[in-house]
Amino acid sequence: MTDQRQALQRALDSEYAAVYSYGVIAAYANADRARLVAEFSAAHRARRDATIELLEAGGTAPEAPDAAYNPPFPVDDPIPAANLAVAVESDCAAAWYAVVEQASDESVRATATEALTESAVRRARWQAILGANPVTTTFPGRAAV
Q1: pTM for the model
Q2: Strands (E), 5-116
Q3: Is the peptide bond before 78 cis (omega within 30 degrees of 0)?
Q4: CA distances, 68 to each of 19, 56, 94 (Å)
Q5: Would you say 43 and 119 are in contact if contact means Cβ atoms under 8 Å apart?
Q6: CB 91 within 8 A of CB 14
Q7: Where do the DSSP E strands lie in 3-140?
């Protein structure tokens, strides 16, 4: 299994988790955020499906998603729901950053850069909702050094 393929599978795993987690987020998010949650959930479903197609086009079957995903902390009202969204987008950004680093194919690197950017923007929107300052980091998706 190539480094690119492994990184793509990890990115797909993060997208699976994001789709699942946005269901939890939707259940507890502020009602004023319903449209935003639906938009971001749809974006992750689309990215999941595109990643499956990308892996299949490369000649390998993607691994199946887990049956369920546990949030890293209890989610029982709008603030933890928004924090879960930040965590989800951070995880996706990190996974796509790894694809950018490991991609041997230019089109895969371009796709990963787009996915990383989208996750970083969604994360920044949630950070702004939570009142964080700054709302983003210098290099989204990269581990802090």
Answers
A1: 0.94
A2: none
A3: no
A4: 11, 23, 21
A5: no
A6: yes
A7: none
Chain segment 119-140, per-residue pLDDT in tens = 999 999 999 999 999 888 877 7
CA distance 89 to 106: 24
At 145 the three-state DSSP class reads coil
Phi and psi at residue 81, to the nearest 5°: -65, -45
**Cα 80 from chain centre:** 17
Nearest of 5, 4, 25 to residue 122 by alpha carbon: 25
pLDDT score for 144: 61
Which among 37, 121, 47 has a CA at the least distance from the CA of 75?
A: 37
pLDDT of residue 43: 98
Residue 145 has pLDDT above 60, yes or no: no
* Residue 139 confidence (pLDDT): 77
pLDDT at 41 over 90: yes
Residues in contact with 97: Cβ distance below 8 Å, sequence separation at least 6, in sequence order? 112, 116, 139, 140, 141, 142
One-letter amino acid of 70: N
